[in-house]
Amino acid sequence: MGADAIIEEQVRKTSISSQSRPRFDSESSLLSDYGGSRTTSRVIEGKRLVIVDGYSMTVEDLNDCHDGLCHMELAESARQRIIKARTFLEKCANEHRIVYGITTGFGTFSNVQINPTEIRQLQLNLIRSHSTGYGEPLSPQKARMLLALRINVLAKGHSGISIENVEKLIAAFNAFVVSYVPEQGTVGCSGDLCPLAHLALGLLGEGKMWSPKTGWSDATVVLKENGLTKMELGPKEGLALINGTQMVSSLGALAVQRAENIAKQADVIAALTLDVLKGTTQAYDSKIHRVRPHKGQNDVARRLRALLHSDLNPSEIAESHRNCGKVQDAYTLRCVPQVHGIVHETVEFCKGIITRELNSATDNPLIFPDQEQIISGGNFHGEYPAKVLDYLAIAVQELAQMSERRLERLVNHELSGLPTFLTKFGGLNSGFMTIQLCAASLVSENKVLCHPSSADSIPTSCNQEDHVSMGGFAARKALKVVEHVEAVLAMELIAACQGMEFLKPLKSTSTLQKVYDLVRTVFKPLEEDRFMQPEIQSVIQLVRENKIWTTVEPFLERMADLESDFPDVLRQQMTSPTGHTPNTQPHNHPGFDKFAH
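^ that's the sequence the OP posted. Answer follows.
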């Protein structure tokens, strides 16, 4: 096998999915270990049914819980595991065995034995004493994710909670009843103790809770108004409710899902900007990327080739500067596959770690009833999600770095050839002057937020917990970085669409014109200065809801089908009008007519 053939095989393996055709989205086999999500097509009260079994929850499932799109039921297999573990635990408690957290105190007090008559009070005291969080409460949506994830972990059957209390947790979830959970106060080790204690406290009838019927109110009132009964704690049940990484992991799942969405949309927005700036697509030629066979890089380059000028998807803007002699662009245009590509791969890696964490037993001690063992360990340590969420923030921030610099090129007449700040009457009007300033400020904030939280550790609990992950802040700041990137990309998109106004009557590709049309539903062309902030927020919401991607996805799916049939032809055909004109005309090949519409 020659060198070219070897490289081609490498690219085929790394940049083409396991399906028979290449994919333009970021696919992975993350759930191969779990057998896929246990979601069903059944709908209950207008919501998708999610059957929780402790092994199959996906990032997408948990995000649907955030959005209130799910109704939850417990898998029968999980029910049996929970009952078996609880039966064994109660046997141990009745025999007065010395077991951490059941007949002993916690942490530094693990050497203190508890009187058998006080082991129930021990669990209630644990929840009350650990409900010491600080800051604003999680939104009801985020608290619902936290509740859903804790239920999933308990469903594994290694925590020793009673089936009655699991059913009460599920009833609260389905009624959208959640506790007041301050967002700060966890060090991400020995579990997210403070936030999970607050989550449990409301379900014990103490503190505050929220529901659609009541808003924020006293927990006893909220439970009563929603026909729910409070939990009663038996041996170990307090510990079973608060020992785990669910705060870090649930916020992490939200950050990962939104990061995945913006990474794909960043490619689309970059393509539109390149066309508006009359750039060259030669840097996206498949031959360049085959000799550097990173999966993400090749996926992004293929996506850009599909979105930009071709005989199948022509751009009048691109044709207007055919053979202009331009051979290369600035790095933020030329190197999109290389920079965006590693972001895609990083998000995919982080998603894999978070998905495994969603389906992990992170309690301590863990109960193994089949072996009749209760074992103390360290699965509660949040280093895995903490590290990947720090990594996620660092990677995703690069999308905003690139985007803000492309935005500068759009508003700078010396770089774009367009009117300064994209306004017709500069001086009287300032146009998009401060949109770029706002984007720059968000990018600068992200630079600080990208400092790894997990690089630090402060010993806690009388040095018993002498290394902690600081995963709580890693998760919160990763989500904040993602929010900033969404905003910066939206600002670039707005500017690119405004730039198109000065190129009319020329149009971009039909695919990118659909993106332009989508933006124009919420942000009209800027004829003169006006108050734009609400419209900017509307475009940010389009990005947050993944609307940019869903607008182009059907086209990219069709293009993927076509590329599998005519790979060599499309590789020749997808070149820049500023470079050579391909000798082969794809539309003359049999089968291309199916793509026309």
